[in-house]
Amino acid sequence: MSDSILAGLQVYVVGGAVRDELLGRLAGDRDWVVVGSTPDDMVERGFIPVGADFPVFLHPQTKEEYALARTERKSGKGYRGFTFYAGADVSLEDDLKRRDLTVNAMAKTPDGDLIDPLGGVQDLRRKILRHVGPAFEEDPVRILRLARFAARFFEFEIAPETIGLCRRMVELGEADALVPERVWQEVSRGLMSEQPSRMFEVLLQCDALRVVMPGYVYNAELGSHLDAAATWGERTLPGMYALCMHQTPERAQLAKRLRASSDCAQWAELLPAIELACQDSNQWGPNEWPDQSLTFLEKTDAIRRPERLQALLNIASHLVQCPLDRWQAALQAARSIDAGAIAKPLQDKGAQVISAAVRQARLESVERALES
């Protein structure tokens, strides 16, 4: 509290930073709650207001977020249907009561004193994810957050009453009000968690998967592939998303609905084609391999974007039998050709002649690589 800007303020670290510290995990960004203050006081102290819906401020030096303690009241459908109150009379306990899970509803003073009015420490010890109270059902985003936390803290069980509350929310149509951006935000984070399968299993338990990802095809086999992929050294969100979508026929429509990133959508479209090419290539004879493989490399823009194909080939090799070494040799050989050097003396011959010459050079390079 040597920070003069904070002098006289009641401030507490809340949420995930407290939880992760108690679990012995590396904590991420710290979130702070300020009790007994007003927006005018915060601005006068030099804090920078950034909250659109309720008073949140950035510390002018550390850039950490400081939010005024607040309560909320349901005033409409969906996660936006709330009225917030952030008066100076809102207590820390009032603020903690509006949070989602007990393990996320703990606070610490700057001196390290733990404040746990809702039993978060006990649930951490028992490895239970439990909702704080009835207000949980007022915000459908909490269904997604619960599923994502289950994927991250896969050794934790979910309290049966919490699952029951989520089912009730779906039955009442609360999940229908979720906007694509929030669904994508939580799903993408869950895919990069320690056990992604649990996110989908929890959404199935809550009967929410069909609402938030209509047309999505999930089964236990896919879940096993996702969990195995989570242990790979170099995984990416586009790769995890492509894997999670590879059994879904309507993947293009679902990517649009979720407003998935363009890389994720493209990888999801490419993976089934690469799986099929891997399977087909097992039947190619020596004379077929050079032309067939080069045609596929050209079709998938792999010569210009080799990292994408290599990543997707690695994923495909865990799904189907794939002659990975031969594909990598063909890609390396095709990329070894200097297209610019071939094109330079043929500038007067036209694009068609140049294209044919470059392809022939690549084809011969692939043939040599596959013969060796």
Molecular structure report:
By secondary structure, the chain is an alpha+beta fold. The chain has three domains: 1-117, Beta Polymerase, domain 2 (2-Layer Sandwich); 127-213, Hydrophobic Seed Protein (Orthogonal Bundle), CATH 1.10.110.30; 281-309 and 323-371, no CATH class. The chain is 49% helix and 9% strand. It has helices at 16-22, 39-44, 92-97, 120-126, 141-152, 160-171, 180-191, 196-205, 209-212, 220-229, 237-245, 251-258, 262-281, 289-299, 306-317, 324-335, 339-343, 351-371, and strands spanning 10-14, 31-35, 48-49, 56-58, 65-68, 71-74, 82-85, 107-108, 114-115, 128-129, 157-158. Helix 16 (324-335) packs across helix 18. The radius of gyration is 27 Å and the shape is elongated.
The helix-strand sequence is: EHEHEEEEEHEEHEHEHHHHHHHHHHHHH
For the biggest sheet, the summary is: 7 strands, mixed
Q: Name the average pLDDT.
A: 92
Structural class call reads alpha+beta
- Total domains: 3
Indicate the overall shape: elongated
Q: How much strand content do the residues show?
A: 5-15%
Key descriptive features of the protein:
372 residues; alpha+beta; Beta Polymerase, domain 2; Hydrophobic Seed Protein; seven-stranded mixed β-sheet; two-stranded antiparallel ribbon; 11 strands; elongated
Question: Topology of this structure?
Answer:
Blueprint: E1 10-14, H1 16-22, E2 31-35, H2 39-44, E3 48-49, E4 56-58, E5 65-68, E6 71-74, E7 82-85, H3 92-97, E8 107-108, E9 114-115, H4 120-126, E10 128-129, H5 141-152, E11 157-158, H6 160-171, H7 180-191, H8 196-205, H9 209-212, H10 220-229, H11 237-245, H12 251-258, H13 262-281, H14 289-299, H15 306-317, H16 324-335, H17 339-343, H18 351-371
Parallel strand pairs: 2-5, 10-11
Antiparallel strand pairs: 1-2, 1-8, 3-4, 4-5, 6-7, 8-9
